[in-house]
């Protein structure tokens, strides 16, 4: 949401994006994934392809177990992983479908704001596709 200089929210029609991109950008997700240690823990957990205990996740990390637990809590609060206490151990697993759906939604929202190949937009990374076929000669005069 955009705010004015005096910290009041701007009206929705005052330059807000028509594609609703801001509504699809979860700050907690980006904050959780912005830390290199959390990102590597998330990647490790995803690569293991099954729920693991906090201790198993920490085994591949150069970070202390208590710090790993705090990082996992942030990933859990952001909706990236799911944790379940079983006896004395906490098991964690990546919420693969949820994360993939969020990222697809974000990608779709970006494409809705700036469709690929929009003429006159130098920032779109895909060129406008031209029809293929025989070239026509321009007629001069007449």
Structure description:
- The protein is mostly helical and 142 residues long.
- Helices cover 41% and strands 10% of the residues.
- It has helices spanning 27-34, 36-48, 54-59, 65-77, 96-113; strands at 52-53, 81-86, 89-94.
- Strands 1-3-2 form a 3-stranded antiparallel beta sheet.
- It is elongated.
- The chain starts with 26 loop residues before the first helix and ends in a 29-residue tail after the last helix.
Task: Summarize this entry quickly.
By secondary structure, the protein is mostly helical. It is built from 5 helices and 3 strands.
Distance between the termini: 57 Å
Shape: elongated
* Count of individual helical segments: 5
Helical fraction: 40-55%
Element-by-element helix/strand order: HHEHHEEH
Q: What is Rg?
A: 23 Å
Instruction: Report the sheet with the most strands, covering strand number, pairing sense and barrel closure.
Output: 3 strands, antiparallel
Overall average residue pLDDT: 75
- What strand order characterises the main sheet? 1-3-2
Strand content: 5-15%
Care to count the β-strands?
3
Low-confidence stretches: 6-15
Question: Structural class, from helix and strand content?
Answer: mainly alpha
List the helices and strands and how they pair.
Blueprint: H1 27-34, H2 36-48, E1 52-53, H3 54-59, H4 65-77, E2 81-86, E3 89-94, H5 96-113
Antiparallel strand pairs: 1-3, 2-3
Helix pairs in contact: 1-4, 2-4
What are the main properties of this structure?
5 helices; mainly alpha
